[in-house]
Design brief:
- The chain is α+β, with helices and mostly antiparallel strands.
- The chain folds into two domains: 11-146 and 286-304, Probable inorganic polyphosphate/atp-NAD kinase, domain 1 (Rossmann fold, 3-Layer(aba) Sandwich); 148-282, Sandwich (Tumour Suppressor Smad4), CATH 2.60.200.
- It contains six helices and 20 strands.
- It is globular.
Amino acid sequence: MSVETRDSGDRSFLIVAHTGRDDLLPTLEAIAVRCAAGGVAMRIADADHRGAAQRADIDFDRLRELGATVTHVEHGDAAADGCEVVIALGGDGTFLRAAELAHPASVPVIGINLGHIGFLAEAEAGAVDEVIGRLIDGRYDVEPRMTLDVTVVGADGAILLHSWALNEVVVQNDTHRGVLELVTEVDGRPVSAFGADGVLVSTPTGSTAYAFSAGGPVMWPDLEAILVVPSNAHALFARPMVTSPHSRIAVEVESDGHAAIAMCDGRRSVLLPPGARVEVVRSDRSVQWVRVDPEPFTDRLVTKFNLPVTGWRGRREQPGQHRHHGGSG
């Protein structure tokens, strides 16, 4: 889905910045210059939760000297209200913090990688000038990414948490002593009971994150499905499952076992007492994902994971044969 820029002069981008990154300040300065020239104000939210002695303060005065209109905003559901785009400057953790602010406001989000792998990022820091120019001019597309609704229910039926996840919800051991006894359920029917370190319920977007490390498959992000991945399970049948996007997934903590924790995207967590259950369904609200790079997911996968592709030749064409590149008729 393509976008159009606003006609009014009241335009702003929300920037979620990881102040621990060495190249943050020059990146912010480059953004400030472009935004000043394009008449777009900057809101900046700090995404670094380390102690003050370990953080690099953002020089707001310097950004204003470059002509930018800059304000500092606190994290909260209203942080992105009225913005056109939320921009994450950092790694995947910063992107998830940015998505947390963009989601309630239904504002599209884009990641500019200042980290290592940065799988969720759309662009690298070296392309920041071009990317911001495209955002100012409205030369970008927006695609929806599936999210999950997460409800945590206590043994007495009380709602302990209602949240959401872009990557995954993880049910894991609270004490790290012994195994966690769990039962998985799909569409109201039990599938398997086992001891494990935990269970992940993931979106296709999250399949390349924690779920991948736990042994789950890579899923293309435009696929609509829910992935269930046990983590270090002690069971004969504890393989990853790919279910329908319409499935209702539940993970129960056995009533006579250990307590656990449910965590959404590594950001929002709640204690699971024995007998609690985590219920997961596809959400009606997606995260709006900014695309400025037409690179296919396959190429991104190869690049980010440094996969070996030496020796690939591609499909060979017969004489007189031409590849069809789309179109109709």
